[in-house]
Amino acid sequence: xxxxxxxxxxxxxxxxxxxxxxxxxxxxxxxxxxxxxxxxxxxxxxxxxxxxxxxxxxxxxxxxxxxxxxxxxxxxxxxxxxxxxxxxxxxxxxxxxxxxxxxxxxxxxxxxxxxxxxxxxxxxxxxxxxxxxxxxxxxxxxxxxxxxxxxxxxxxxxxxxxxxxxxxxxxxxxxxxxxxxxxxxxxxxxxxxxxxxxxxx
Length: 201
Known about the structure:
Blueprint: E1 2-7, H1 14-25, E2 30-35, H2 58-61, H3 73-88, E3 92-94, H4 110-122, H5 125-128, E4 135-137, H6 145-154, H7 179-190
Parallel strand pairs: 1-2, 3-4
Helix pairs in contact: 6-7
């Protein structure tokens, strides 16, 4: 198994350290970090000098596409995954998108995943020659955040190693008030569990 993480110029690069910890804990022997500078394009609070929204209610989070949307991010990520899969002879690509408790990102929707899977089998030598049939797996897509928390605990995930915050402080502590933190906290609360990560002041 190969795990890919992306250093794309995101303000919350601390997530890369968390990805490394989790990959090591689960015995992933090939964890690669791909560098792409999406700050060259900007257009998102995660890759530009735009303030990350904070303190929004659940209904507000669900309205429209937020400024934390990174243009074409999952399309770019999946394209890299597809290239690596073709080189390695792999057919299965997994991505952790969620279409239930999420921030309205268009590239988290099932129809996007279906379209990319179709593209993957049309745009590759392996697909055209029939050597591979690429499948995009989205095991978290139809789960609520509470369901994800519960499934992770069932599988032995140490959530203290994970990171979700869009606007961590200089020490890497989660802010607790951005959309991502609020959705995470909501998930833990609804799962009847305590979030073990350290939040800032």
